[in-house]
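Archive record:
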Amino acid sequence: MQDHFKEKAQNWDSGNIRVNGAKIIANAIEKEIPLNKNMEILDFGVGTGLLGFCIASKVKQVYGVDTSAKMLEKLQEKNSSDLHITAYHQDIMKEPLKQQFDGIISSMTLHHIEDLDDFFATIYKNIKKDGFIAIADLESEDGTFHSDNKGVHHFGFDKTSLYEQAKKHGFKDIKIENINTIQKPHRDFGVFLLTAKK
């Protein structure tokens, strides 16, 4: 997947849809999860930090993990002493992180993950007891959201089956709700937020 994002990293933050979308997701997370300054959060698929930086001012520390070195280079350019994300360049399904977090957030990354069982099993281990997940991604779509579906393993998600998958891996208080609609010339695409606790 990292090669797929190599070319896109340079202009990733210039699109209004992405920037505004990250803000909407951050607001939706804050509405569902009482964030505080003692929390250490992992942003899975952090990219250039669009979501992570929105959350960073509300918590103690945001860590980010991504398989794209180019995306993480763009993130490092935005790091400052006030807002800082500690980033890891690795695939945590193959090389798990030893650290546990108060919560894991993710924006529009899940559809790039081939094995969802592996994903939920991995992140469950990386969350402290009573910790949370907040994952935003596309509702079921017809494959036309991306102009190029290379690296896309799911054309959005069916909420019922995603709910069952999270439940199967031990998550509780699972909630999935629509939080945004992305309008493209040919059709609209729904974005959901899945929240749950360990």
About this structure: The domain at 2-185 is CATH 3.40.50.150 (Rossmann fold).
